[in-house]
Structures are given as structure tokens and as C-alpha cells.
């Protein structure tokens, strides 16, 4: 009899993969990050890093907080380069 795979409900250890999302830790917190290949990108999204649109067909990442309070509404679609540069691109305080 084949065994049934059960979905794990707990979060993976940081740096481990869930199969569809990678856990990452940075100065801005713990995140789950999923890569979206261009062939699966079918909608237009606005990148919070650069405030430009991510057009259909453009590969990008989806990130959301890795805590139990994170929900579908917390997911954000980012250009990969914007996600990687988010610590350097934060708004500066002007006097």
C-alpha cells in the first residue's frame, strides 16, 4: 500500500525549503520567499521595492512574514533585485 504524504503545518527551520517557499532571515525579520518563474507570472503586480509594475511573464519573488500571523494578504510580489536590495533601498529620513 502506498504511503500518503501529509502536509506539514509547522514552519521550516530558517534556510530550509518547504518545497514551494524558502525560509529566509534578515535584519527586517523572518520571511518565506517563493520564486515565480516568468512562465507562471500571469498577472501584473506592483513591486514595493521600486514601486514599478511587475508585468506578466516577468520572473519575480513573492515574500511574506514567516510568523503565524502572516496571511495571504501579507504576500508581496517583488522584483528579485529589489528583494535582495531591500535593506539598502529603505526610505531615508530627510530634514
TrEMBL record:
This is ATP/GTP-binding protein. It comes from the Bacteria. Residues 1-28 are annotated as: Disordered.
Amino acid at each position: 500500500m502506498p504511503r500518503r504524504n501529509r502536509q506539514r503545518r509547522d514552519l521550516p527551520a530558517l534556510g530550509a525549503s518547504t518545497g514551494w517557499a524558502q525560509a529566509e532571515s534578515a535584519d527586517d525579520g523572518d520571511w518565506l520567499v517563493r520564486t515565480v518563474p516568468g512562465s507562471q507570472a500571469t498577472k501584473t503586480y506592483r513591486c514595493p521595492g521600486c514601486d514599478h509594475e511587475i508585468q506578466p511573464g516577468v520572473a519575480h519573488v513573492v515574500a511574506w512574514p514567516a510568523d503565524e500571523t502572516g496571511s495571504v494578504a501579507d504576500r508581496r510580489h517583488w522584483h528579485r533585485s529589489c528583494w535582495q536590495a531591500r535593506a539598502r533601498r529603505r526610505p531615508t529620513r530627510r530634514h
